[in-house]
Automatic annotation (TrEMBL):
GO MF term set: transmembrane transporter activity
GO biological process, one term: siderophore-iron import into cell
Source organism per UniProt: Kribbella voronezhensis
Xref: SUPFAM superfamilies: ABC transporter involved in vitamin B12 uptake, BtuC
Primary location recorded for the protein, binned into one broad class: membrane
Statement: the UniProt record of this protein carries the keyword Transmembrane: yes
Localization, UniProt: Cell membrane
Entry keywords, A to Z: Cell membrane, Membrane, Transmembrane, Transmembrane helix, Transport
Official protein name in the record: Iron complex transport system permease protein
Amino acid sequence: MWAVRRVSRPVALILVATVVVLTFAASLALGSRWLGLGAVGHALLSPDGTDADVIVRSLRLPRTVVALVIGVCLGIAGALMQGHTRNALAEPGIFGVSAGAALAVVLGLQVGLVETVGSTVWCALIGALVATFAVQRLASRGSGATPVGLALTGAAVAAMLGALTSAIVLLDANTLDGYRFWAVGSVAGRGFDVVGQVLPFALIGLLLAAVNARDLDLLALGDDVAAGLGLSVRRARLVGLLAIGLLTAAGVAACGPIGFLGLLSGHVARRIFGARNAWLIPAAGLTGAAALILADLVGRLVGGAGEVQAGVVLGIVGAPLFVVVVRRRAVAL
């Protein structure tokens, strides 16, 4: 186990929260123009219209808040996904949520419904939620929504929706141009208006995740044992699926499909805090927030006059590191 497991869980959670605060502060201070903490504090507490005030309040603060909120959502969604499928390498995209959101955005672009960030958010949310319900309904046929059934059904739905999306964008150059900027996965250009539109869905998803935490602990013992202890397995799966759908939909709608974040956050939190979901779920949210803020910051620092999008940074830097961790340590729930 990692060294942090030698401290108590409350202390470890405080340490993770401290990392989030430090990355948040660094995101406000660093970029193409580096600012001191004094300039950042002045911009936040007593702005008077200087260049530094405008940079912090109009550019860096909104995108950092977006990264914080969406990172929490996708981190918790990853932990829930891994718990319900009993697979530490699972991630929310396997439910077809991202693919549903992408298809809805493409259809919206094609018919002219998607013209602003707000309209993109609503199209993505609708597509993500429809895909979530479709997976749940299909997986529930027969013996019910088992972990294997959910994973296989989600993968099949994701493949089908992804094929439809590819067909549309390849046949329509205008739709492709609009879609490719959203699909890369980024917090750039997102502001407080985007947070406001996805926040109600995110809050409902967080509430459902909190309710689902104890049920997940029982489900880890096996469906038969959980049912024998009085748990409604079908209800627990449905609540968990709804939480995953809402949280992932909020993240995908706001920032596009950001891969790997849920996978990384859930696994790292599990390695540090163990399998008890009362600690695992908030830890995964904080880990996801720190990772997305840091990825956005790195993209700004290495991009020179431009920037590398957060989704690209997470894929290039995070995926190889995660492979190394998995190869060096047994992955188990």
